[in-house]
Amino acid sequence: MDLDYLLDFEDYFPSMIARMGAEGFIGELCSGFRLLMDVNKGLITFESLKMNCYLLGLDVRDDELACMLMEGDLDGDGALNQMEFCILMFRLSPCLMDSPKMCSTQVRADHMLM
């Protein structure tokens, strides 16, 4: 894959957790999920992700959207439920995944979503 631009990535999740606490952070993730989900299905679908990217002014190709969904789709239904979305967000945060002290935050996050 040939990229004609470079993106700098800064992981803000650890500072968000430090500022808001674990419960506040999980609440923000849940708000993000609700922003992107199809309100009728309660899932982030290809169509809802595409529409919301458009509404947010993001130019994302269909194959990129499909890859985003496949990356987090643990049950194989082609969409993301709230738990899959939150797990994906944790997995995509290099600082959270590298920090042993965040393991307790992940456990609490899983408990809060059940």
Automatic annotation (TrEMBL):
- Keyword Magnesium carried by entry: no
Tell me the first and last residues of the signal peptide: none
Q: Show the InterPro entries listed in the entry.
A: EF-hand-dom_pair (IPR011992), EF_Hand_1_Ca_BS (IPR018247), EF_hand_dom (IPR002048), KIC/PBP1/KRP1 (IPR044205)
Q: Which domain of life is it from?
A: Eukaryota
The UniProt keyword set, sorted, is: Calcium
Annotated GO molecular function terms are: calcium ion binding
Q: Name one Pfam family in it.
A: EF-hand_8
Domain (EF-hand) spans: 60-95
UniProt keyword annotation of Oxidoreductase present: no
* PANTHER family per UniProt: CALCIUM-BINDING PROTEIN KIC, CALCIUM-BINDING PROTEIN PBP1-LIKE
Q: What is this protein called?
A: EF-hand domain-containing protein
